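Q: How would the structure tokens look for this protein?
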Amino acid sequence: MTVLGRMGMLGSSLITLASSAGLYAVRTAGMPAHELYEDEDFDAILRLPKRVIHTEDDVSLVVREAGSPFAPLTVVFVHGYCLRMQSWHMQYRHIAERWGRDVRMVFVDQRGHGESGASGSKTCTIAQLGRDLGRVIDATAPTGPVVVVGHSMGGMTTIALAAQRPELFGPRVVAVGLLATTAAGLSKTGIGRNLDNPVIDAFRYAARTAPGFVQQARGMAKAIVSPILRAASYGTVVSPRLVRFSDRMLDETPVLTIVNFLRTLELHDESAALPVLGTVPGLVLSGDADMVIPYASSEDLAAALPDVELKRVRGAGHLVQLEFPEVVNRAVDRLIQRGFAHDVSTRRSAIV
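A: Here is the predicted structure in token form.
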């Protein structure tokens, strides 16, 4: 079938897929949404000092840092699919106020997202994202304890790093936060069911054979993936400005990034790294209204980690760190405290 022929399949499929976007609207119809964030500056992270880190395949990763360079601990935040570093805005604001000079923060835009450089389809993989994260840690926190907090695809990235560089975990990476994520099996649960369909296959084909055409067809690509992600973002009624903020991150994600990462989200399997993650304190947190990665996946992940806090956020959708920031912030605080304790214990053991 020709590219145009495959794209013609869109017409009959958009109505069905667009119904996903209606789920949130139906849930919230007639319910007032209080504007909690009328004066919130959701782009505050973009005013932090910026640096560019080059990967081994010469993709430019944009990193921004907050806090004292002499802080005794660094937290590296890794965002999810179709998001960018600003998705951690609530955590950035809280940690700056709560921890002051004791915690330094590093935020990165994953390849193909935000301000970072584009990547070819062959390197849009969870394994490559793991190598990218290792590069970021080497460049921004070459010494001292590190806590890594990843959301969704960012959590998968963190698990991939554990598979590739287990020696980091314990001596350097002293705690790990895994929010709304899974080690494997996305194709079998949640939104993964929607990724296995001929329309998505048509876009994969088009991306390989006519990327220029796909760029022009950005609106149609968004009509496939965006409604699904939007419907899954929140499980409760949230601030209208918050909805516009998360929608903007999705809208600004290049169509080739959206398409090229679909396959790895379906097929990735980093479960062999779980014993490595089990050597440090962990947090597994998820909303029980998450349609992207169901809460049961978080339970399975936590069951494989011996020193873990499993936190269920009632009513939360996939963007749990934005929807229930207070709950997430308190959980991250506890993780930081456990990371400090693990670092002290490790250094004492090394002296003995």
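The radius of gyration is 20 Å.

Residues 302 and 326 are 21 Å apart (CA to CA).

Upvote if useful.
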